Amino acid sequence: MSDTSVDQAFAAIAALRARGLELLDGIPDSELDGWPVAVPEPVRAVLREIGGVREGAVRYTFGPRFADEQWAVGDFPDDGTALVVGVRGAEWGPVLRAEGWGEETEFVVEAPSFTAWLLGLGTERSAPKASVAAVPSVEAAEGPDAELAELVAGGDQLTDVVDLRALPDYPCRLVWEPYHSLDYDTADTGSSEFEWELVGGGRALLLRSLPSGDFLGRPVRRHRVPADAARLAVTELRALAASHPELVTLDEGCTDAEMDAWPVPVPDDIRTVLREIGGVRMAGLPALRLLPGAPEHVVDPEVHRMMGGDGTYWPVARVRYPHSSALAQIRIDPDTGAWGYAVSVPADLDRLSEEPELSLLAESLPHLLLTLARIAREAAGTDSFASRARSATDWFMPNTGEPWTRPVPVEEWSGTPDPLRAALTALPPGTHVADLRDSPIPTDLSFHRSWKWPYGRDALDRLHFTAAGRLVAAIPKTGG
Question: Which of 107, 110, 167, 189 sits at a 20 to 30 Å CA gap from 351?
């Protein structure tokens, strides 16, 4: 701690008195010693003298109001204003002001430290001199900055982060927008929210979107799938089966000669899995049967056609709910033979016809297996493996509460420079399309939630997948 910091604290107190602000009684050291966080000397130097400041209608109180490494300061009118200070190190800061409600909340870092903020109290508030944009927390988690990666704790697809450690100037505006969108028709109730918190004692700000009843409005950054996901999936599943044989069992794989005889080509990464594992059974989850011939994978011929027909998908699990079922599958590009996204599609003819939808489960079969292995590891540390695993995999059944990717009429893609999107513009009028390449995993895609989708029984003619499931179209019967 430097003498300069303490000198600044005394200068702040003198400035407040000189401006004629009402100062509240100070707080004795005996009380400060009982606070849930250590109080550094520059802050003590202030708090011994003043326990708060009244500025007009606003009363800044400096009592022990701490939560999640942040200190709340001030009693504001009911206008959505909050003022928080990071509590870490030899000098508390930065000081962050949030103003407004919901998605309209504006964030400004007013000063790098509590004492620096006090120096300006009672003067006209300066307009922001700089701005810093939030970045996806997944990007920070996978980036080179180890300290920032630790602060975001692995990252979340719907959470952004602002690095507050070295802002270019003060006051500094923080630029951010939620992942859900209110600019389009909402998908349901339109009750999305967001949460924010200072972490690391003020080193970063997390901004978490909580979509509920609204479509996603902008791309997300997914977690990177390892290049050797197939090998890792085999290794992790074998380890789980060995350590928890009563909870995880694996079926034998098959030979390359057997795979060569299948009606679809089998890429190398899929072979890496299927040579070793032909199925996965976990307590609480639908059985994954990865080899052909599982009787539960058979669907009504009309459902089969509506899913794309032969050579377009590889079924891996039948998912059953009390009044419905779905078929989890790996989408196959019939032109290239590539195996792509794992999706779950309603397997009941009436439901698929009337309410076409799907859930995006993973970027690939190896990715899906890695995800299940992670869920199993987490569940193994609890008292109820089956219920924990079941609750963590609700997304196996479409439309079970995951964020909604927005489907649009194909006409909205007219003139797109994206070749994959452009290829879908030749589909019949009335077709609805969606691009899953920048959707979170898992995500729900409910075509019938678009206000322009033709509601009613037997509305869907078929689903059409492009690039092994990366783009999806719903073609209505009225469209041909």
Answer: 189
